[in-house]
């Protein structure tokens, strides 16, 4: 599998590196990093102060030519009636997006030896793996430790492992 990574807006290099590392470690795929694209102005909802997630998926689809593509952004995203999303993907499709906007909250009040940068990078890897998993046909998993488990809060993202559980792994193999 080949995945095109498309930064949208100002996306720092550590974010794209974490995304690429997550994809390679879980899916053993090739990943191509594209040049950054401008934020889709027509996707901004002034009333919400957020961007429509679907617009980022559409933008990445126009840029990338690989089997799968993922847009990365630091902007706050929403989807339909949800207050926010960490990411969005089309089930069994080729497009997805991950926002890091809400992934940068402190992990555990400083009780861990891991740095905030380490925790942030791990969250990015998990969310990228999760969204690409949806494009591979994986739905949300009931195993709360599986990366495909639905996680509407950062705390729930932190509980998950970065890898697929055995059942989800069998689906993508």
UniProtKB/TrEMBL annotation:
<feature type="binding site">
    <location>
        <position position="134"/>
    </location>
    <ligand>
        <name>Zn(2+) 1</name>
    </ligand>
</feature>
<keyword id="KW-0862">Zinc</keyword>
<dbReference type="InterPro" id="IPR012091">
    <property type="entry name" value="Pept_M54_archaemetzncn_arc/bac"/>
</dbReference>
<feature type="binding site">
    <location>
        <position position="140"/>
    </location>
    <ligand>
        <name>Zn(2+) 1</name>
    </ligand>
</feature>
<feature type="binding site">
    <location>
        <position position="165"/>
    </location>
    <ligand>
        <name>Zn(2+) 2</name>
    </ligand>
</feature>
<keyword id="KW-0479">Metal-binding</keyword>
<feature type="binding site">
    <location>
        <position position="141"/>
    </location>
    <ligand>
        <name>Zn(2+) 2</name>
    </ligand>
</feature>
<feature type="active site" description="Proton acceptor">
    <location>
        <position position="131"/>
    </location>
</feature>
<feature type="binding site">
    <location>
        <position position="168"/>
    </location>
    <ligand>
        <name>Zn(2+) 2</name>
    </ligand>
</feature>
<dbReference type="Pfam" id="PF07998">
    <property type="entry name" value="Peptidase_M54"/>
</dbReference>
<feature type="binding site">
    <location>
        <position position="146"/>
    </location>
    <ligand>
        <name>Zn(2+) 2</name>
    </ligand>
</feature>
<keyword id="KW-0645">Protease</keyword>
<feature type="binding site">
    <location>
        <position position="130"/>
    </location>
    <ligand>
        <name>Zn(2+) 1</name>
    </ligand>
</feature>
<dbReference type="InterPro" id="IPR012962">
    <property type="entry name" value="Pept_M54_archaemetzincn"/>
</dbReference>
<keyword id="KW-0378">Hydrolase</keyword>
<comment type="similarity">
    <text>Belongs to the peptidase M54 family.</text>
</comment>
<dbReference type="InterPro" id="IPR024079">
    <property type="entry name" value="MetalloPept_cat_dom_sf"/>
</dbReference>
<comment type="subunit">
    <text>Monomer.</text>
</comment>
<comment type="function">
    <text>Probable zinc metalloprotease whose natural substrate is unknown.</text>
</comment>
<dbReference type="GO" id="GO:0008237">
    <property type="term" value="F:metallopeptidase activity"/>
</dbReference>
<dbReference type="GO" id="GO:0008270">
    <property type="term" value="F:zinc ion binding"/>
</dbReference>
<dbReference type="GO" id="GO:0006508">
    <property type="term" value="P:proteolysis"/>
</dbReference>
<keyword id="KW-0482">Metalloprotease</keyword>
<protein>
    <recommendedName>
        <fullName>Archaemetzincin</fullName>
        <ecNumber>3.4.-.-</ecNumber>
    </recommendedName>
</protein>
